[in-house]
């Protein structure tokens, strides 16, 4: 399987890249600056907005870990529209990295996390635009999957290889924490690339931890 990872030098993207390489997939990192990569990997040095159908048609799956800087969160939507446009003529599947803010707070599905009183204000814009992007995917004709991390997304946590899955509301582990490490999130992403269990669906994951989280 040929996999390309957009934003492969970022926090989430670099872990996904490492997991894909470890599993010996034919992996390409799509980045604006090859020098930012820590892994020795095939590279397509190109801005997301400059990607063409010809660039991505050679891959079985594109993982989109694009993350714009603060103040440019609207680019989640613009980037999504561009990817949908260039993917439409292809059979390439899109696996998109979402936000926990897109999820409902519980099974009642009344309030989304991004609208809850204790959701960090600095994360609200990103979650709002990622939710818009998800809605655009749902109306598109491409084959996609949208994966949301747990509320506590731990960059330093271990890779256990174990996690639970759910759909559109926050999952909590046995300690009642909504938690996933970046490493285990990467495991779940590559599992989805490999097994395609959630085609044209959004889902979320959580795992055990020893850190208190909400």
UniProtKB/TrEMBL annotation:
Highest rank taxon of the organism: Bacteria
PANTHER family: FLAVIN REDUCTASE (NADPH)
Residues annotated as signal peptide: none
Domain NAD(P)-binding: 7-192
Record-linked InterPro entries: NAD(P)-bd_dom, NAD(P)-bd_dom_sf, Polyketide_Oxido-like
Protein name, as recorded: NAD(P)H-binding protein
Pfam families: NAD_binding_10
The organism of origin for this protein: Metasolibacillus meyeri
MF terms in GO: oxidoreductase activity, acting on the CH-NH group of donors, NAD or NADP as acceptor
């Amino acid at each position: 399987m040929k996999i390309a990872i957009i934003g492969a030098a970022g926090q989430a993207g670099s872990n996904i890249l490492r997991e894909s390489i470890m599993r010996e997939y034919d992996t390409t990192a799509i980045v604006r600056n090859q020098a930012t990569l820590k892994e020795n990997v095939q590279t397509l040095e190109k801005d997301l907005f400059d990607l063409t159908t010809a660039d991505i048609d050679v891959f079985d799956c594109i993982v989109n870990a694009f993350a714009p800087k603060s103040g440019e969160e609207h680019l989640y939507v613009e980037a999504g529209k561009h990817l949908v446009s260039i993917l439409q003529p292809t059979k390439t599947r899109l696996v998109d990295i979402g936000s926990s803010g897109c999820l409902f707070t519980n099974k009642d599905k009344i309030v989304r996390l991004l609208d809850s009183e204790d959701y960090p204000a600095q994360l609200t814009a990103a979650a709002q635009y990622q939710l818009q992007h998800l809605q655009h995917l749902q109306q598109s004709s491409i084959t996609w999957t949208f994966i949301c991390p747990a509320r506590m997304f731990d960059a330093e946590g271990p890779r256990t290889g174990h996690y639970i899955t759910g759909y559109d509301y926050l999952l909590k582990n046995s300690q009642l924490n909504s938690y996933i490490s970046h490493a285990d999130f990467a495991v779940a992403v590559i599992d989805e690339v490999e097994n395609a269990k959630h085609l044209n669906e959004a889902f979320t994951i959580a795992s055990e931890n020893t850190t208190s989280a909400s």
